[in-house]
Amino acid sequence: MSVNERETWSSRIGFVLSCVGAAIGLGNIWLFPWRLGAYGGAAFLIPYLFFVITLGSTGLMEEFAFGRERKAGAIQAFKEVYAERGIDWGDKLGVIPVLGVTGVFVFYAIVVGWILKYFVLALQGQFAVIDKLPAYFGSFAGTPKTIIWHLLAIIITILVLRLGVKDGIERINKVMMPTLFVILFILLLRSLTLPGALEGIKFLLVPEWSKLANPKTWIMALGQAFFTVSLGGAAMLVYGSYLDEDADIPASALQTVIFNTTASFLAAFVIIPAVFAFGLDPKAGPPLLFITLPNIFKQMPGGYIFSVLFFLSIIFAALSSTMNLMEVPVEALMQRLKISRKKSVILVGGLTFAVGLPLDLSMKLFGHFADFVTIYLIPIGAVMAAVTYFWVYDITKARQAINQGSDNPLGTWWEPFAKYVFTIVAGVVLILGIIFGGI
Ligand code: PHE
Ligand code: NA
């Protein structure tokens, strides 16, 4: 394929499954289950579902339509919109969301490396043998032992991306996503039938209405709603740029939200009941995946097979996200430098590996980097995309672009909602995140 010919998705289901793969990631697995329990159980679902359905789907429609209209990634898309207003530095603005998403790729690739290592440990039956799992993780993460796994994660992503959008990303997501859901269902049956699982179910479901009086509950639900569907102004935008004019953007956005939320629920009902059944603490973040859960597999009947399935499902969830994340700088370099996809993946792979190397060697640096990217760059990117598309471009044209090809077009009521409510709330997410050090 020549450099100027743009690929398109081969099927609607392929596009949606690729977006679902992009959305489902660490946010669903190591943030959502704990948040659901800690911020009021079923009560948390009220703000969360409300925010993700209204704001999450609006952000997705915005990114899909912006990308489709411009047939370009964020840098070129921003450049064109600002140029039409006589501003010639729009591309410099578009670099920010691209850098933000690339930053997520840098730390995701490291975590995928850890997951690959733990998948191999699971295959070898090591969880039954390793004496102290916390100490084991401590002697692995943050040391040179991770480098080779980090590199492997990048190489796997490169191998998929070099095949292109249709033959690489779409084809593998069509296999990985259904498999992911099947595995999660199998794990769900195991977890719910463990003696003592009921306590975990109560933690997740018994509504603590008083938590709704705590602003932090609303803030966490809001932050989750944006992060979980990957709103950062570049990642979903680049997938949208490969869409046909007859694709139904509102329907695709809603389907992405629904599948992503289903995955979050499944993860919560797989993880939390098992954690309670073994009397452990359902923390969020890396310790959950790399200490608490391996500890459970060690003691659980059938722990070997369930540990293998579990880490395989996490690999699918995380790799389908790294493909989307890496596609963003890959597309940007192909377009800017007029180089082939094959050259671009090598360039991006090499650069992001080099940037990630110091983070391999220090968990502290890793934490600061991940915080900087998720607290500042990603929310800034989300705000910039909303301002650019809904304000600088034109809210009516934006709505028409979204409605193009849709069976259920949005009415004019949507315009003030998107232009004022969505954009302002995106700004609130950014500010609260900075104040609270991450939401
Ligand atoms: N949605 C991903 C998750 O839940 C994270 C992500 C955020 C990816 C922003 C891309 C951009 O894990
Ligand atoms: Na997600």
TrEMBL record:
PANTHER family named in the record: TRANSPORTER
Tagged with keyword Transmembrane helix: yes
Key words of the record: Membrane, Transmembrane, Transmembrane helix, Transport
Membrane topology summary: Multi-pass membrane protein
Principal location listed in the UniProt entry: membrane
GO cellular component: membrane
Presence of keyword GTP-binding: no
Name by which UniProt lists this protein: NSS family neurotransmitter:Na+ symporter
